[in-house]
Amino acid sequence: MLREDLKKELDKLNDEQLKKIADFIAFIECQSRQVASSVPFWQSATPSERAREFREWAIQLPKGSPSLPDEAFSRDSIYE
Known about the structure:
Number of strands: 0
Order of helices and strands: HHHH
Helix content: 55-70%
Oligomer: single chain
Strand content: under 5%
């Protein structure tokens, strides 16, 4: 019903009015994309998508980095 009423009203408009409506529609679409992109990935992704993203991130980490020495993992070294 609403769709048909809108179509009838659009048919009555001149080119300048239609241009304004087209601009408004583009604005609304842009806003909806911004809202969708403002949701963090971890909230919108499925568990498998988050896992894949984490694995891809881990793969790009440097592989030849030196590890911490064993004493860094010791509690005794904290309280010296």
